[in-house]
């Protein structure tokens, strides 16, 4: 397809497509003449990834570049590349305090790897600190319920990564950025459903 | 305690405590002299709620006021008050399109109430739209797994609301604002734990 059709197919403005080409985020088309190029389904796919990262996940282009670089070349250590890619998603937390005592205690309690180098460890520490400051710290009972249910989701996510048409990095980054808002909205709606059934129908 | 002790206990700057008093967010202390007042554990608690809403949840003071108003007077219909209070938390979505076809289909599929008036319905619609645009729409299998696991969390949340020392509105708002980041961080860490066990140890 021509570049105009590519823009139309993906809903990305033509000027933006050209900008991505200049910046090297989108691979060049196949030249079919002195001033014309042809674009394929691979280009459509790449634009969908960029669009999801910029508009749905709200990432700055600089972070998108890091992720695309990891998609194109994850290197020999896929585990590290996955960690780096997901760490490019918000929230961004960096601390001089490298210990994260609350996150460590929680992860040890549920038998998970504790690694202060994971971006999500700092994220968990801050989230737990906020619950404690509000007098709503995680009880052991809440932790066990949450951990078990979340594990069920995460196991499914990883199983589906293996069968996905997406590369592991694409799947991990997009699956984090795109399914997190779904999960939170579904939890709020489950609360309303359960509350409606207990407190009587709405309205 | 004196106002200076109140500020110290809660970690809220004295000038901010005085501002909340002037704005009526914090109830006045008990006068013990012409220019002195005494503050109680109720004041500590209220400041903790305000602090959680402003700093952990990142709410503007205008939204905090709405929530505090509902905490102080939920009115006769607790279900509506809960909905209004949680709708004061981000993300804020309003649309001219009042139908939300994706959210409706999902909620009908899992047998939950569909109400386009719930703020989280619009939130879910947008989240689902983003997954589809990226070619990662929710499969039925993913939906069933997510719905079941999230239901387990939500059932627990509601059970604990009944035994909580907090008012239902406080519990619902803080439990939404504070546990959402915990859930997301725990899911990311569960992914890393499972991936590490499959792909070999990190580092």
Tell me the layout of helices and strands.
2 copies of one chain form a homodimer.
Chain A: H1 3-10, H2 14-23, E1 30-31, E2 37-38, H3 41-56, H4 61-72, H5 78-87, H6 101-109, H7 119-133, H8 140-163, H9 168-199
Antiparallel strand pairs in A: 1-2
Helix pairs in contact in A: 3-9, 4-5, 4-9, 5-9, 6-7
Short summary:
Chain A has 203 residues and is mainly alpha-helical.
CATH class of the domain at 1-56 in chain A: Mainly Alpha
| DSSP summary: helix tally of chain A | 9
The main sheet of chain A comes to: 2 strands, antiparallel
| Radius of gyration of chain A (Å) | 21 Å
Largest interface: A-B, 81 and 81 residues
Segments of chain A where pLDDT lies below 50 for 5+ residues?
A: none
- Class of secondary structure makeup of chain A: mainly alpha
Oligomer: homodimer
What is the tally of beta strands of chain A?
A: 2
CATH topology of the domain at 1-56 in chain A: Multidrug-efflux Transporter Regulator, Chain: A, Domain 2
Numbering strands along the chain, what is their spatial order in the largest sheet of chain A? 1-2
Helix content of chain A: 55-70%
Average per-residue pLDDT of chain A, rounded, comes to 93
Strand composition percent of chain A: under 5%
What is the distance, rounded to the nearest whole angstrom, between the alpha carbons of the first and last residues of chain A? 52 Å
Succession of helices and strands of chain A: HHEEHHHHHHH
- Write down the overall geometry of chain A: elongated
CATH architecture of the domain at 1-56 in chain A, by name, is Orthogonal Bundle
């Amino acid at each position: 397809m021509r570049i105009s059709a590519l823009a139309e197919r993906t809903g990305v403005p033509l000027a933006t497509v050209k900008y991505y080409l200049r910046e090297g985020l989108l691979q060049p088309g196949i030249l079919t003449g002195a001033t014309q190029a042809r674009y394929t389904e691979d280009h459509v796919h790449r634009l969908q990834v960029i669009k999801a990262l910029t508009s749905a996940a709200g990432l700055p282009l600089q972070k998108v570049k890091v992720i695309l670089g990891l998609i194109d070349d994850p290197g020999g250590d896929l585990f590290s590349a996955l960690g780096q890619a997901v760490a490019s998603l918000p929230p961004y937390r960096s601390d001089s305090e490298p210990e994260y005592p609350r996150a460590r205690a929680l992860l040890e309690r549920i038998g998970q790897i504790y690694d202060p180098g994971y971006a999500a460890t700092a994220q968990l520490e801050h989230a737990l600190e906020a619950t404690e400051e509000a007098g709503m710290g995680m009880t052991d009972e809440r932790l066990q319920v949450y951990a078990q249910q979340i594990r069920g989701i995460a196991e499914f996510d990883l199983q589906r990564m293996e069968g996905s048409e997406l590369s592991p990095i694409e799947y991990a980054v997009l699956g984090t950025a795109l399914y997190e808002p779904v999960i939170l909205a579904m939890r709020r709606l489950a609360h309303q459903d359960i509350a409606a059934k207990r407190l009587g129908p709405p309205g």
